[in-house]
Amino acid sequence: MQNLAQVMISFAENGQAFSAMHVSHYSPHDFRIAIQALMGENRDALAYALGDAGLALYPESEDILAITSLLAVVREDWPQAVDLLRQLMEMQGSDSTVFTHSMLIRSLRCNLDLAEAFEACGVALAIYPEHPELLKEYEALAEALGLGAVSRM
Fold first, then answer.
1. For FRET with 19, which of 26, 84, 135, 153 sits at 20 to 30 Å CA-CA?
2. C-alpha to C-alpha distance for 138 and 124, rounded to whole angstroms
3. What is the DSSP annotation of 20-66?
4. Quick one: which of 145, 149, 94, 146 has its CA closest to 124?
5. What is the CATH number of domain 77-153?
6. Helix (H/G/I), strand (E/B), else coil: 76
C-alpha cells in the first residue's frame, strides 16, 4: 500500500480532486505521519486538506486532534486551535502534556482571550508548578490584564 503522503502528492500532481473516501482505509497514525511529511516538504495546502479529511473520518482520535491542532496554530486559525486543543485535553485528561497546555494558552492569547488564557495558565501551573515557560506566561498575562504581581495558590 502506498503511503498516504505519496497518495496526496499524486492527487495534487495529477490535478485530481480527492475525498475522504479515497483515504478512509488509512489509520489516524498514518494521517499524522503523512501530515508531518507534507509539512516537511512545504506542501502545506495538502497537509491542511488531509487534516480536514482526518477530522471528518476520525473526530475522536488523539493523533488527529494533536496534529490538526498544530496545523491550526501554524495557519493562525486561533478559534479552531483553541477548540481542537480543548478537545484533545479533554480526551487526555490528567495526561495532558505541558506542551498541550502551552499551545492552548498561546492560542487563547493570540485569539485575544486574555482572561481565559490566564485561567488556563493557572490550571497548567497547578499541574506543572515550576515550569519556566508557564511561569513567564502567567506573569505576562497578569501584567496584560493589569493585575500586577499575582500570587498563585
1. 84
2. 10
3. HHHHTTS-HHHHHHHHHHHHHTT-HHHHHHHHHHHHHH-TT-HHHHH
4. 94
5. 1.25.40
6. coil
**Domain ranges (residues) in the chain:** 1-75, 77-153
Determine the residue type at 106: R
State the cell numbers at 103.
Answer: 499551545
Q: In the chain, count of helices (H) and strands (E)? A: 9, 0
Cell of 130: 515550576
* 16: DSSP letter: -
pLDDT digits (tens, 9 = 90+) for 86-132: 999 999 998 999 999 999 999 999 999 999 999 999 999 999 999 99
**Amino acid residing at 11:** F
pTM score of the predicted model: 0.86
Q: Which residues of 12-29 are buried (b: 16+ CB within 10 A; e: fewer)?
A: eeeeeebeeeebeebebe
Residues 65, 32: Cα–Cα separation, whole Å = 9
Residues 14/6, Cβ–Cβ less than 8 Å: no
